Amino acid sequence: IKALMKMGVMVTINQNVDADTAEIIAAEFGHKIKRINDSDSQINIKKEEDKEENLKARSPVVTIMGHVDHGKTTLLDVLRSTNIVSKEHGGITQHIGAYRIKTKSNKFITFFDTPGHEVFTSMRARGTKITDIVILVVAADDGVKEQTVEAINHAKAAKVPIIVCINKIDSNNADSQKIKNQLMKHEIVAEDMGGENLFVEISAKLKKNLDKLEEKREELFAKPEEFLDQTKWA
Predict the structure, then answer these.
(1) What pTM value is reported for the model?
(2) How many Cβ atoms are within 10 Å of 8's Cβ, its own excluded?
């Protein structure tokens, strides 16, 4: 991106560039380039159908995203019965973590915990590209913030379903309805308001309604294939 900016080309991490520009950039970094056309790229590519007996089940991958200090890692701590937050500087996640959790139904889920600070936007963008579901954590006492919107945009760019997790409902200033109204501006609409997005209200701190979060995940898995590519997981 920096090299493109020096050339006067302003792009973001999710934008494509034309072939000529890509060739110039690749050459600038010392790579050898060989230009091919679409027909050349199809040569010697043998397509094979996967046999059912060769397929292996894998656990779904869930990425937890949202604004800093809205309780993403605390939620994962409770699910894992660990204490990651206390090890992070200021209680803020500084790196991407991956954890595998076994459910009550003896199935596994792989969770990604992504940094919540805005300087890690590019890391978060990469995180959504390898996930099946995004859990968007929003604090009931704080509302939709800049990084909440960033997370929504990354999830939409990755074309993955979103479960909204309204956290900190134990707070005196909690207002779940305000959160739902704010998210409507970003085309995230709860089912009880006529939309298709799954919402769950929890308190990670008090371990309240965590079973409902699991129910929402199972509910999402039961939706038709247009909501979730069920060939990706078992």
Answers:
(1) 0.63
(2) 6
pLDDT attached to residue 127? 55
DSSP per-residue letters across the chain? -HHHHHTT----TT----HHHHHHHHHHTT-------HHHHTTT----PPPGGG------EEEEEESTTSSHHHHHHHHHT---GGGSGGG---S-EEEEEE-TTS-EEEEEE---SGGGHHHHHHHHTT-SEEEEEEETTT---HHHHHHHHHHHHTT--EEEEEE-TTSTT--HHHHHHHHHTTT--BGGGT--BEEEE-BTTTTBSHHHHHHHHHHHHTS-TTT--GGG--
Catalytic: which of 67, 117, 154, 186? 117
pLDDT tens track for 74-83: 887 777 764 4
**89 counts as catalytic:** no
> Is the Cβ–Cβ distance between 140 and 179 less than 8 Å?
yes
